[in-house]
Amino acid sequence: MRYKIAIDSCGELLDEWKNDERFETVPLTLMVGAEQIIDDETFNQKEFLKKVADCPECPKSACPSPERYMKAYDCEAEHIYAVTLSSELSGSYNSALLGRNLLLEDHPEKKIHVFNSCSASVGQTLIAMKIQECEEAGMSFEEVVATVEHYIKGQHTFFVLENLDTLRKNGRLSKVKALVASALKIKPVMGSTDEGNICQLDQARGMNRAMIKMVEQIIEKTPDSEEKVLAISHCNCPARAQVLKEAFQERMKTGRIIVLDTAGVSSMYANDGGVIVAV
């Protein structure tokens, strides 16, 4: 096996990766009240959303241990990569680095690189796709690392949420701002900074207008769109994701558009009805 890609469970897997030994999900743990839920192939989105809605406490997540990452790296692949959600949002990146260092103590010959996505969700998916593309093109390990790190610097992630409760409860949005937004039905258009933090880009009254604003932001920030793959993930709203896809097809040229359902961590933050776009 020439390469392996480990993606923490904030990133969504393409269907063709799910039975491919070159791809592995490293699960985070989700906590809803006193219940712990492993974010792996057993995750049930509808059950999870109901538990979150019924629980007065804010859902939380815990990153994988260094030992869990070490286990993912301990394989026969010549080149090993990890893709984690932004180090500004989780300890997953640092845990992945520690796992790498632990394995290298016993196997210093291993070639392992950890990518800080500076993103989340389908942003991570696109990074894994880029790694695969580079590997399939026959690039050396060092060339793959340099090419993908450059790709990450040019990537942008955007999202609009129907429900702001999780962001507010986790301190990503002030209580006053969230309450005013909810009362006036204002939906912020959010994005990622270069460092991987969350920022507000725009806002609109109502979900449909907010999605239009998000499309405009994406078109403005993606001048070379015909060379890009655009990815959409949605939390329990496939029709909304389809509307977005059609809007992009009408208004900008892209190399490819993929649509995925959010995995556990992304579902926790996006909440029911949220949509995320990365390009």
UniProtKB/TrEMBL annotation:
GO molecular function: lipid binding
Listed SUPFAM superfamilies: DAK1/DegV-like
Keywords associated with the record: Lipid-binding
Name used for this protein in its record: DegV family EDD domain-containing protein
Lineage of the species this protein comes from: Bacteria, Bacillati, Bacillota, Clostridia, Lachnospirales
